[in-house]
Amino acid sequence: MAFADRIAGSEESFVDMMNEKAAEMGMKNTHFCNATGLHDPDHYSTVKDISVLLRYALQYEDFRQAFSSSRYTTQPTNLHPDGFTFLSTMFRYMDSAGVVGGEIIGGKTGYTEEAGLCLASLAEVSGKEYILVTAKAKGTHRTEQFHILDAVNVYSQIGESGITNEGRSENESF
To answer: Which of 73, 121, 157, 164 could be disulfide-bonded to 107 (CB atoms 3.0-4.6 Å)?
Structure first.
């Protein structure tokens, strides 16, 4: 919320910016109502649209660094001399980031009762980067983290199969 206020002056203005950017990026099945991702009947997206958003965001080094870190601290400011520290929920729940043929580089977890356990993740397998977005996994914060297990399994299957992106366009995915 602090970022939304700082960037746009209010959450409402920030959400307007989010929806404008989503439309600009061709995210036709997305509509934001808040900056938190908490449930609202008019707040929705698809795994495809979230993958479009993640691909876009990963172009920015600051985002990539924060997304791929188990912990990330922002630069200090006069109001926050220690900066802000963010901890990766995904890495906290993983014994290892390794998968067959590579590793999971980063991820953002999410959970609401309506959406279940969700994960947007990035892995490098056999020298190629892959984005995987999952939603509606069973469980809660108190159960086994099935969304993370799903990602480990999918990325490992890619590594086991020897699939590569050679010959595929940048917009094609598995």
So the answer is: 121
